[in-house]
Design brief:
289 residues; alpha/beta; TIM Barrel; eight-stranded parallel barrel; 11 helices; 8 strands
């Protein structure tokens, strides 16, 4: 058993023994009882760096290395350009910075859709190179065969249905899904198909609340909502949205801080001190004895 705490007084991880075991896929599954009740909702946030993982880890059950890094780290317009190399690099960083949370990594667009065999090759690489415990992939009934293929071969899979960002070109945008009866029925059917294929949990993104509630009741595995319902078995947000790092955020995001404003203020103060030559002071300067 590997148990660690992390020295957060520096920006680097220094493992030392601690009486804590990392959460596992079965432990997450067990949160949802046979009668469908969840006594302790699942707390999940995205993370992309070691330091952020260190800060979030004590408070989360799952850290998701999301392909949302496309926008929040790399400034891309969508998640479509994300590569396996990107996910491997950031996934390894998050694993190094955590010791408690289950780490799940997004499978990037184009790395799993062609065939179950392609999905296995990509997922195996992600887990080998990062040390993460599971992968997440988007899609419903069309991906059920792939989910079953992976889980039978020892790769835990988190599903993702509803608004699937990798399909933005097909969907025509990021609007909430399930506004008509046909689409609503499809979302619930997608959730059932992925759950029956062996997914240990399912993200429900950007769906009408009644659909999220129906899907949560329809599947045995935990559901994790993002723009869905408080009655999902857990919740996830993109960390940069939750911290207020961007001026514009989706309606379903609650800003728990305004970090962008605080960073701006700190940078402004720094610039003023440098310009006025009031930084550095004696406290920050090395002098010979």
């Amino acid at each position: 058993m590997s148990t660690y705490t992390l020295d957060t007084s520096t920006s680097r991880a220094h493992p030392t023994p601690a009486p804590m075991r990392r959460l596992t896929v079965p432990k997450i599954q067990e949160r949802k009882a046979a009668d469908g009740r969840v006594d302790q909702p699942i707390v999940m946030l995205t993370a992309y760096t070691t330091r952020m993982a260190q800060l979030l880890d004590p408070h989360c059950d799952i850290l998701l290395v999301g392909d949302s890094l496309a926008q929040v780290i790399y400034g891309l317009d969508s998640t479509v350009p994300v590569t396996l190399e990107m996910m491997c690099a950031h996934g390894a960083a998050v694993v190094r910075g955590s010791y408690h949370s289950l780490v799940v990594i997004d499978m990037p667009f184009g790395a799993y859709e062609a065939s179950p065999a392609q999905a296995f090759e990509s997922a195996a690489r992600l887990l080998k190179e990062t040390g993460a415990a599971a992968v997440k992939l988007e899609g419903g009934e069309a991906m059920a065969e792939t989910v079953a293929f992976l889980t039978r071969r020892g790769i835990p899979v988190m599903g993702h249905v509803g608004l699937t960002p990798q399909a933005v070109n097909m969907l025509g945008g990021y609007r909430a899904r399930g506004r008509d009866d046909a689409e609503a029925k499809k979302i619930v059917a997608d959730a059932r198909a992925i759950a029956e294929a062996g997914a240990f949990s399912i993200v429900l993104e950007g769906v009408m609340e009644d659909i999220a509630i129906e899907a949560t009741k329809a599947v045995a595995c935990p559901t994790i909502g993002i723009g869905a319902s408080a009655q999902c078995d857990g919740q996830v947000l993109v960390i940069d949205d939750m911290l207020g790092m961007f001026e514009r955020t989706p309606r379903f995001v609650k800003r728990f801080d305004d970090l962008a404003a605080r960073i701006t203020d700190a940078a402004r103060t720094y610039a003023a001190d440098v310009t006025a030559r009031t930084f550095p002071t004696e406290e920050q300067i090395y002098r010979g004895k």
